[in-house]
Amino acid sequence: MAKDKNQKGGSWMDLALPEDFPEPYTEERAEEEEEDTEEAAKDRAVKCSPTLLRMLKAAESRWTPHFRDKAELSELGLKATEAEALKTNMKIQVSDQQEEFNKPPTKAGPRPLSHSVSQSSADSFSSVGSVSSEDECPPQEKLQKTSQGLTDFCIKNIKQAPFGRKEIDIAQQGMPALMILRKRAGGEKPLAGAKVVGCTHITAQTAVLIETLAALGAQCRWAACNIFSTQNAVAAALAEGGISVFAWKGESEDDFWWCIDRCVAADSWEPNLILDDGGDLTQWIYKKHPSLFKKLKGIVEESVTGIYRLYLLSKAGKLCVPAMNVNDSVTKQKFDNLYCCKESILDGLKRTIDVMFGGKQVVVCGYGEVGKGCCAALKGLGAVIYVTEVDPICALQACMDGLRVITLSEGIRHADMVITCTGNKNVVTREHFDRMRSGCIVCNMGHSNTEIDLASLRTRELKWHRVRPQVDHIIWPDGKRVVLLAEGRLLNLSCSTVPSFVLSVTASTQALALIELYNAPAGRYKQDVYLLPKKMDEYVASLHLPMFDAHVTELTEGQAQYLGISKHGPFKPNYYRY
């Protein structure tokens, strides 16, 4: 038609329409065409490979009409196959594999994978999407054992260890600082004799940290700080590597505390260091095993919630061990909280909900580092951002960034999405939920699930409907629906993953903090909460610069004297705000 259009004097209006339109496609016409096709096929023999022939016949069998007797269909199919084989002078053997391929998919599970699928792909599929009878069994009731005979663990399925090991190997490529620490300090074993009990997200990235601590000489036992963020294959790989892990994805609240209790193992094992994310492990040992708590050499905490709990203990005079505040270190605040959330918020939302963000009205509760990252990402996609804040300094920063600062009550009626980033409790209450428009999406980017008042939503008049993993519709009596993601828990790690490079920064600060507390001479740290030394912050940053081929300028002696600092750092005082 393009050729006709370009002819001289031709136009679209001059094109002639056909006088006869094709007849409708009816069953009689289909039978006539089928007869014509069979007659034409008799006149010409097309040779093809046996494999292609089997695939074509299998595809054709799916479109044939349903016969009254399945045996009749099978018999006709075999006769047609044999006839075609004789026509092309090829021998076709009808095997069990062909019969299995011809079976339609059943509801019992996914269709069998072909033998051309690689082993790694099959492992990935089984670890992510399949549900076997073994996986349906509660992990506490399983009797599992590693290839080395270890039984002191509780995970979903130890058979997923090979796939988990591949995930860990991939994560190592994006975590240069931890790999450098292994090389530089592996021979010295600065954590020899340390017994570290940890409660963090169990992902491929944290697995690199755990194995780094083990390479530095520590004995480790681990539980998960989030019931949705555990990667089951990674937990299996850690167990296979000799780490006692007690975690699986989708734990209940009772399972969560059971895993922490088994991880502590106070009757048979006495930890001397805690690595915590959220303060749940610290709180459990403090309340359940006070004598064990007093023997600790130190605590390393990386979350706002956990730091808040430690400061409460310190203020009340009940903190009897030194604690290191990793959350407020510069590298953690800027990279894990700001840059990581800037990227992972979109990943988590896109994986769970099919929605465009352009023009959507989004209320972000809190404008700290996490809130700043979320706002920057959503604003870049064209969303209209509103911010709620209690701190006038953060509120002023939001205004200078071009955002509207309001109260949640002011904007809740028109919000398409509400994201909490405060680290506080009861930020979004039942009153707010009742005033939301239908279809409003609610999620949390803070550590704890206390920011959203879920208890007020578990009532008889409200119905919960799980539409997909980590996505619940809460239905009001009038039909209004509110979409809740990850049951109010941390969105990015519950519904997606985070970049390995960002977690390399945080994990490096955690490892150095543990080394510092374990090797510090008596009297250096008292029973209080300490910030990570500035020198360590700068050291962690310097370990990551080679990935960008970055070259830092070195101060001269005169310049260092002029600034009153050492030419080797630290370059900023503790009160400096980056």
Question: How would you sum up this structure in a few lines?
Answer:
The chain is an alpha/beta fold and 578 residues long.
Strands, total number: 15
How much helix, percentage-wise, in residues? 40-55%
CATH hierarchy, class of the domain at 139-328 and 499-556: Alpha Beta
Strand order of the largest sheet: 9-8-7-10-11-14-13-12
Write down the overall mean pLDDT: 82
Q: How far from one another are the termini? A: 64 Å
Biggest pleated-sheet summary: 8 strands, mixed
The number of helices is: 24
Proportion of residues in β-strands: 5-15%
Question: Which spans have pLDDT < 50 for at least 5 consecutive residues?
Answer: 1-13, 15-22, 40-46, 62-133
The CATH architecture designation of the domain at 139-328 and 499-556 is 3-Layer(aba) Sandwich
Which class do the helix and strand fractions yield? Answer: alpha/beta
The Rg value, from CA coordinates, equals 31 Å
User: What is the fourth-level CATH superfamily of the domain at 139-328 and 499-556?
Assistant: Adenosylhomocysteinase-like
Which fold name is given in CATH as the topology of the domain at 139-328 and 499-556? Rossmann fold
What is the 3D shape? globular
Provide an overview of this structure:
An eight-stranded mixed β-sheet has the order 9-8-7-10-11-14-13-12, covered by helices on one side. It has a seven-stranded parallel β-sheet with strand order 3-2-1-4-5-6-15, with helices on both faces. Helix content is 44%, strand content 11%. The longest helix is centred in the middle third of the chain and has 23 residues, at 330-352. The chain is of the alpha/beta class. It has 24 helices and 15 strands. Strand 10 (417-420), helix 20 (430-435) and strand 11 (441-444) form a beta-alpha-beta unit. Among the domains are: 139-328 and 499-556, 3-Layer(aba) Sandwich (Rossmann fold); 338-489, Rossmann fold (3-Layer(aba) Sandwich), CATH 3.40.50.720. Helix 10 (204-215) packs parallel to helix 22, helix 16 (330-352) runs antiparallel to helix 22 and helix 22 runs antiparallel to helix 23. It has helices at 2-6, 27-43, 50-63, 70-87, 96-102, 119-128, 133-136, 161-173, 176-185, 204-215, 232-240, 253-264, 280-288, 290-294, 304-315, 330-352, 369-380, 392-400, 408-411, 430-435, 491-495, 500-519, 534-544, 557-563, and strands at 195-200, 219-224, 244-246, 273-276, 298-301, 323-325, 361-365, 384-388, 404-405, 417-420, 441-444, 463-468, 471-475, 481-485, 529-531.
